[in-house]
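Review form for a predicted model. The reviewer records the input and the model, then writes brief findings.
Reviewer: anonymous (R2)
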Amino acid sequence: MKNPNDPKPRYDYRDHYFPGTEDLASDELRIIALGTGMPLVRRSQASASFLVQLGNGDNFIFDMGSHAAANLASLEIPFNQLTKVFLGHLHIDHVGDLGELWICGWLGARTRPLEVWGPSGDLPEYGTAAFIKNLKKTLAWDYRTRTGSVPEAGGQLIAHEFDFSKPGVIYEENGVTIKSFPAIHISDGAVSFRLEWNDRTIVYSSDTNPNKWFLEYARDADIVIHESFMTANTLVRRRGFEPHVAEMVATKYHTSPAQAGKVFNVVKPRLAVAYHFFNDLDTKYEVLEEIRTTYDGPLTLAEDMVVWNVTPDEIIVRQAAVADNVWPAQTKEDAAVFPTLKRGPQVVPSQWIRDGLLEFDSNMSITNHPASSD
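Model under review:
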């Protein structure tokens, strides 16, 4: 139903979502699954990452797992619009492509800092601030060799660490409120998130065991995204786990499908989304069957590049149709900054390295090395 006062058009949604062809209505949000898999990297599923886009123009990334950056790039969103990342915890399958987003977004015409919100740990060295500091150290050579040839501000990586143990607001701007609350996942320092905007609410578990905080903060949500690990039976059958180990992994380190279904049944979202399992023909039906033992409501078993459009009236679920061979998306204003840079790289190789440089004349003949005379 179209709101006559809506300044943006509401679409009769196409069967697939084609990036760049659908503006969001002012009361609408869109979620895109950038990664739905696990630490075991494979081409069909990137690791955990979800993009939330709001009708006010804001974009938020929740987790940035390994290989998710390529899926994000395929949406052809200018990197200046992708500057806010929220990390649920610091496992590689939730942060593995943060360095890619930082450096390559900078090269892709981001002229603003990349900001990262994430939890503290039980010790300072295990918190988000330490992680970001050490990521900068790890990529110091890369960063140093870019300075001067790309806008300085776009290379800034800013950490906003918050106390993981205290539920509350960690972000509030432009009508958007994001709350964090403790999650239970192997060690101290894991959280889940609740985003509220314009009477729309999205809750994202990241990784967690079922817990009392989630039942409190996930109620009355439009979409609840909760991990639903592979079944213990799948771990035994496909990975050779001993049954007691499979049960521990599926129900103690993670949330089993039956447990996830029970959580969905209690918090009652408009739509439940289960993620964090290998979504294969021989595994997804086991996940679905087990969820359905405890939950019979609306449900999506997440796959990479699934799109959810959320309006007051309906939730549309589709797949994104994207190109593989995309170039970095940039606005004309962003791109115009690069030709204005005059300094060039701030570092140069040592003289003996520069002495090894081959020089060419207009005929592409090497002019400064005897062995090249032929």
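Findings: Residues 128-138 form the longest helix (11 residues).
Further findings: The domain at 16-340 is CATH 3.60.15.10 (Metallo-beta-lactamase; Chain A).
Recommendation: see findings above.
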